[in-house]
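Running this now, will post back.
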Amino acid sequence: MIVAGAALGLVSCSSGKESKEFKYLVEEFADLKIMRYQVPGWDDLTLRQKTYIYHLSEAAKWGRDIYWDQNSAWALPVRKAVESVISDYQGNRKCSDYQDFLVYAKRLFFSNGFHHHYAEDKFFPTCSREYFASLLEAVGTENADELLDVIYNPDFQAQRKSTEAGDIVANSAVNFYEGVTREEVEKYYASIIDESDPRPISYGLNTKVVKGEDGVVREEVWKVGGIYGPAIEKICEELEKAAEFAESDTQRSIIAKLVDYYRSGNLRTWDEYNIEWLQDTLGTVDFVNGFVEDYNDPLARKGAWEALVNIKDHEASARTEVLSANAQWFEDNSPVDPRFKKSVVKGVSAKVINAVCLAGDCYPSTPIGINLPNADWIRRDYGSKSVTIANITHAYACAAQESPKSTLNEFAHGEEEIALAKKYQSITDEVHTDLHECLGHGSGQLLPGVSPNALGEYSSTLEETRADLFGLYYLADPKLVELGILPDGEAYKAAYANYIRNGLMVQFSRVELGRQNTEAHMQNRKLIAEWCYEMGQDMHYCDDSGCRFINVIDKVVEDGKTYFVVNEYGALRELFGQLLGEIQRIKSEGDYEAGKELVERYAVNIDRDLHREVLERYATLNLKPYGGFINPDIVPVEKDGEIVDYRLDYSADYIGQMMDYGARYSIL
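Update: finished.
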């Protein structure tokens, strides 16, 4: 998965039928900006397709509370108390204390809980506990004192996913485990996993692990009749309504399989659904719905609930289809040990999509690229489906145009580097996302007998590192120019300079001073950039001009400002290839200790002086480092008592949509 960082410059924001006078930026607060996205091509869809999308979107919205509860058992009670204040409080709403409360509410909604969506640390209201207590008292909140302790106590559930020393299961706020230690969880799974199974089940993906009063460790399943049963029943009802309007029998079969999985909780059925889903490549409408990504789980087993409804951009998909068609060439020429390569790459499909509805782990903050399914054996035997979400990257770009300042001008070293970025950054960002999602995640293979969970808590970071390196290595390959994907052999340099600049500096504008770097994607970027910087010092490098010792990347300080400058792009590509080979070896062999060493050494700790400098320089730009989106409302249009169309309403405001979703789609 690719998570958006800096805004991407893609296409014009002021021309075209659907872009005219459209306002992308909704509001800003704390370190966040809220945006709208458009859905190009909506008016070209048939009524049947729109109805299909409508019910898929309703199914997506019904899963919202599941994700909240997964983030913390206290997330929903806190949210509902906050919603009561917003809807019922009759006091002074213009005073500074109430405005501070409202900022906390907005942050709570954005993060689907009281932990920062990216840094994973707990955040707190800036209004006093006494004032917050007066709000809860005014609206008659039960157990207000207990809720206030949850909200204000810095030691209670301090991190959503713990990275501190100690028991990372017991110390994490996520609601995936209850009454168990890491040792007990790992012992439990070791007792039920068959390591010799060539098609292993994704054990634990849809369960909570608990220890009962009898002392026995067991799993409780997220399914109809189990945990989250009422919400999942609603999801199934809307999926079954959607199936009546599906574009093909294949899509109807896929939905039936998903509903079967939700009702049974059987992970074999989940695998069967994924195999069918990834092979459906002909339709215009597609969706993701389920317990999918395991980034939030300290042990990388539990799937966070997410949903995405989308339509294919047929014209823009041409580039990704070229990459998919050449997937075997990229696998064969990858700079990794031949033992770890797939002899036959199967079923790689890629397309560009436009989102229509974001939900769960994709809302409000959403990835800009996705590659699924995650099971290694399915990727090996059947392939994967990759998407790049065009209208999300477009919205980022258009919202950024409103700011006169940018991180590029502040952190890039000199006009030549800035000019290179302005000329090529947009296209290389898009192509890197395509390579990461279309090919990177699906590349390579595990050796026989290696567990897909062998890398434990480091698996998410290392997998994102692997996919990013795959994309970086091939951005500089002449094959991309030959295929017409990049305009010339200079374009990749913009991506390389940006990656080092971001990985070593700019991204830490998102982290509070003194904190460690904890989010998997940020760890991945730091690992790559730090490793290449270190290994590139006094590196022996040979090219057409001969052999010599060079610093691939220099640290330059001018006028009190630090810059990282790439001196030799060809050598940097060589380093990317070397690291890709090692990361693939670690994954293929399940080398936990080597993976741990790389992550702990290069990805976690931030130089405090450099971090302070980044924060001070970033503060002068008056930018918000994180962005998220509100969905367009899909509104039925009736005539003579029948629905004759569905229109998109883009007028919703941020708090309004959050309150509406809380009122309409909450039964937990």
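DSSP finds 24 helices and 18 strands in the chain. More later if anyone needs it.
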